Each structure stands twice: as C-alpha cells, then as structure tokens.
Amino acid sequence: MKDVLTLNPIHRVGGTVKLPGSKSISNRVLLLSALSKGTTELHNLLVAEDTKMMIGALRTLGVQVDEESEVTRVHGVNGHFPVKKAELFLGNAGTAMRPLASSLAFNGGEYILDGVQRMRQRPMAHLVDALNSIGAKISCLMEQGFPPIKIEPSDKITSDIVYVKANVSSQFVTGLLIAAPNIAPEEGLIIRIDGEMISSPYVALTCRLMGQFGVVVKTSEKDFIVPNHPYVSPGKLNVEADASSASYFLALGALCGPLQVEGIGQTSIQGDTAFVEYLAKMGAQVKLGDNWIETSPGLYNKKLRGITADYRSIPDAAMTIAAIAPLCEGASVLKGIGSWRVKECDRIEAMHKELIKVGCRVESGPDWLRIEPPQKLKSATFDTYKDHRMAMCLSLLATGGITVKIKDPGCVVKTFPNYFECLSSVIKD
Q1: What is the DSSP string of 299-331?
Q2: Are 309 and 395 in the same domain?
Q3: Could you report the per-residue pLDDT of 308-334, keeping only the tens digit for each?
Q4: Domain check: are 166 and 250 in the same one?
Q5: What SS3 class is residue 147?
Q6: Structural domain count, the chain
Q7: For residue 414, what is the domain's CATH number?
Q8: pLDDT at position 1 over 80
Q9: Catalytic residue from among 129, 242, 316, 387
Q10: Relative orientation angle of helices 243-256 and 388-395, to the nearest 10 degrees
Q11: Is 316 a catalytic residue?
C-alpha cells in the first residue's frame, strides 16, 4: 500500500458491506479452542495481524492450528500447553499478550512474552500483581509494570480468591477469567474487582464465550466465580463481524447513506453495537435486524448533532464519534476515555493533534476530549501513529467535502486489512 493514501471528497455512500470477523471474539476463541478438549472449527475468523500473532504463539506452544480458506481448525491441548520453554513475540496485540500471560502463569514452564516498542509501553502491572499474589512467578525484564515479562515455572495457585484492578484495562479480567477453569481450586476461583472496571461489555463477552466452551461463570456486583472445570470444544463456532470495525461504516451511513452493515445486529454479543444508540442521539436513523444494521441521515436535519456522553463502555467505537465530531452541529464532549492513553498510541493526544488540522478547536484532559467544529473544514494530511483505528476513523472526514490524505494506511492490517477497499466499494459519488 502507498505511504500516503489520498481520499477525494465523499458525497454519497450506499449498498451493503460485509465486515471481517471480530478481533475481540477471534483471539478469545482461538485461545479457548487451544485450551479445550477436542478440535474446534472456527468460521469467519478474522485474518489480520493480531490473530496471526495469537496463532503464531499457540503454534510455538505446541498447539496444532490448521488454516484453510473457509475454516480454521484448532486442536485443543486440554488445559495445558505441551511446550514448557518459549519466547513469544506478540507485536502490539493486547488481546494476545494479557490472556496468554494469564494462561501461561501456571503452566509449569518458563516463558518470555514481548512485543513491539508500543507494546512495551502498555501496562501489565495490575495483571502481574494479581497473578503473583496467588502464586505465579512473573517479573518484568525492563521497565517495572510493562512487557517484556518473564514467567517462571509455577503450577499451583495459593488462594481461592484473586483481586485485580481493572480501571486501566478490562483485558486483565479477561485474562484471569480464561485461565481460571484450569487453575482454580476444587471449590472454584473468585475473581474480585478492586475498584472500578472499564469496558465491562468486553468482560461480559468473555464470559459468554467461555459458556460456549462449557464453563459457566457466576457473577455478582464485584465478583466473578469460575468453577474448576475443563473447557470442551463446541465443535463449530461462527465468529461475528467486528462491531468496532462496523462503527466506521455505520457512521458513514449516518453521514451520507443509507448504508447497511451485515454480520452484526440486534442479537450481537458485542458491546460495541451500542454505538448506534449514540448515532441515534446525534440524529441519525437506525434500523436493526437480527444480522444487519442500517444507518442513514436524519429525516429532517441531515446533519448530525454533537453530544456530550460517557463512552467508558465502548472506548474503541468512541473514536469514531471523535472523528465525525467536526462534521456535526455543535460541540462534542467525550468522557470516560482514559483507556485511550494506553492503547496502540495515546489516542487522546493523537486525536487532539489531528482534528486541529481540519480547523477544529480541541481541548483534552486525562480522560476527556472536547471538539468544536469549524465553520469550514480544511483539507488535511493525517498522521496515524501506527494505529489502525486512527487511520480508519480519520478517513471519514472525507465526507465533509474535503480531500483527506492518510499517512501509513497499511497500519489497518492490524484488524481490517482490506478496509480501504471496502470503503471504496460503498462510495457512490
């Protein structure tokens, strides 16, 4: 792909777009399949950088993974990885790093988990502390609290309760949940949230997927109670389309559609489908079926309205709200987005800098962003910070009647390799 991609003004979109499989579901079910008894056929699995990192790591750990054009077969190892010494490179895939660290902590082996430079800046302290508190032997090899991490042999936990802080990343909870059935005492393991938990829909997603592999998690206000119970393959599993990736096309439809997205709908198990509720509050028309969502501009006022809202439950999809804020009437205020600062880049700082380029007045704080649209948008060349979501979000500004240039468009390979081809396919003029 070119170093800089030029997008001409987009005036109208239409038709239907089918999206790739969910990253969040794909990496979870790859690991769950690997830990299960039996072979699992995964359909519509995301084929992207993050899933390749997970598959590569699983193979290094002794899991047989067969990739075909329509299906990926994972041959489970029934709870314990056979390889007891390995170094795993996980790129910038947080959905691989945190759950794998948890599942290897009591596998009785010696492992080093590392990634790209940005991964070395993404927090691990709360997860490492939680695992070590119940008998794991994990140390940070460079900066305390960050990858790379070293896991030394430990095969038995020392408590039936583990406390974890989840105000930085819900992936810490997801990692503990996935590991728990294979390491829990006979009476089960209690995972207790210490303080606030962000992105709770992603944790609910983990619990639902664990249920499909035979493990039922009981929940209360602060506790997740996980039984000592082996994972059992469901045989076949279909991966939903990615709801976070859907947000770009749902926003497109709301700006200059109608546009229909296939693969997710009102029966989706992903929290990011709530994105359409915010679009509706901004004035868009939204229609939902079991496996599709259609968006279009408002009946009476074609322009969306800026709103003030808390987005801590859908932080990834909230980036799309920030990107279309310059196209709205009135200011937009995004609250509860502190987790942006420890994602693929510091997304609050990055979005602040880039939206100024089109003429917006932007203010930001530790966990909030305020965007006031200009009277007239300016054409801009956007930096993307090696962040797939920055590239995809900022492309939407071409609907504002301006030419948009995207640097390093190839960074979308992380979760949506053919994003710009899909975008081109729905542009009508």
Answers
A1: SS--S-B--EEE-TT-HHHHHHHHHHGGGSBS-
A2: yes
A3: 999 999 999 999 999 999 999 999 999
A4: no
A5: coil
A6: 2
A7: 3.65.10.10
A8: no
A9: 316
A10: 10
A11: yes
